[in-house]
Amino acid sequence: MTAARYDCDVLVIGGGIVGLATAHALRAARPGLAVTVLEKEAGEARHQTGRNSGVIHSGVYYRPGSMKARFAVRGAAEMGKFCAEHGIPHAVPGKMIVATDRSELPRLHELAQRARRNKVPVRELGPAQIAEREPEVRGVAALHVMTTGTCDFAAVARQLAELATVRLGTEVTAVDRRPGVGVAVRTADGHVLRARALVNCAGLYSDRIAELAGDRPGLRIVPFRGEYYRLAPGREYLVRGLVYPVPDPAFPFLGVHLTRGLDGEVHIGPNAVLALAREGYDWRTVRPGELAGTLAWPGMWRLAARHWRAGALELRRSWSKRAFTAAVRRLLPAVTEDDLLPAPSGVRAQAVLPDGTLADDFRIVEGPHTVHVLNAPSPAATASLPIGREVASRVLRTLGP
């Protein structure tokens, strides 16, 4: 492989919002750089980017100083500006994090302290103020997070794609890395593409791509499906904005929340259950090889042993609409089973470490001629523009002047 035979300077695998933001950042930082995004689906944003609550997170939850905290705060402001500049509908309604029981008050207070350390403006509310903002929601106390917004992340991804070179329907099946030269990837249709550097933003398959490149990620992507319902027509009035429970600090999941979208529909969810395939959006979708790979990972069993009670509750809410409704009624007492209609699910690409720990921050790993984004679940969509710049800066260091 010689310089004359490069098809482009940088190949980006993955046409979700992080991969597209990375391509955008590379072109912005070095105009004229040839960047190509490879996406295996027929369109952009078909997985995590296009299957979430559409919430622009403010950065209230994340460990101060972490990439999640820094990039979410920065990314929320930048995402609103990007949407405004490109005519993408968005809003900043704020949200409430509601304690439904006095036992949750210490955790709510800790969240308030964390928000202030992350420079996220919050206001503490009592029951009367909760009822003023959300008449049907019940709680003993709440945090009002003023900078939380909503947008269509898939529309953002499509706009980013217009600013990049994207090859759709192009699945990478092999990676050949040659030290001091660059990388070559083979696609499912037999084509070979050569570049000076490779960026792996493959989401649910990011660990697999890292392994194809000869890098050892030291983790396994475990797919957790998040199942949603939506409020039946005529019942949307029960929720005016965005309402979240106080999260369990042992998990990176935020719990079943209530989200009024820009279209006025109210989505309720998600839960978090192990998917039986990396793109397993329902219980019927099973890929035995992928499931075997998940179950063979030692960290999966250590995770299950540590959190089996919480996992059992999530499974029960998945299989029983009555149990799911009961969980929602803690926040929204007026809701009934008949009010909840099925809505599309999403799958979260969660990195699990060998000791069974859930990676709690974004994870970006470099190798010769490669940069791998190995853990980018929520709030990655919110933080995608800063993540893209961070990845781009690492790639440019690899490329040199």
TrEMBL record:
<protein>
    <submittedName>
        <fullName>L-2-hydroxyglutarate oxidase</fullName>
    </submittedName>
</protein>
<dbReference type="InterPro" id="IPR006076">
    <property type="entry name" value="FAD-dep_OxRdtase"/>
</dbReference>
<dbReference type="InterPro" id="IPR036188">
    <property type="entry name" value="FAD/NAD-bd_sf"/>
</dbReference>
<keyword id="KW-0560">Oxidoreductase</keyword>
<keyword id="KW-0285">Flavoprotein</keyword>
<keyword id="KW-0274">FAD</keyword>
<comment type="similarity">
    <text>Belongs to the L2HGDH family.</text>
</comment>
<feature type="domain" description="FAD dependent oxidoreductase">
    <location>
        <begin position="9"/>
        <end position="393"/>
    </location>
</feature>
<dbReference type="Pfam" id="PF01266">
    <property type="entry name" value="DAO"/>
</dbReference>
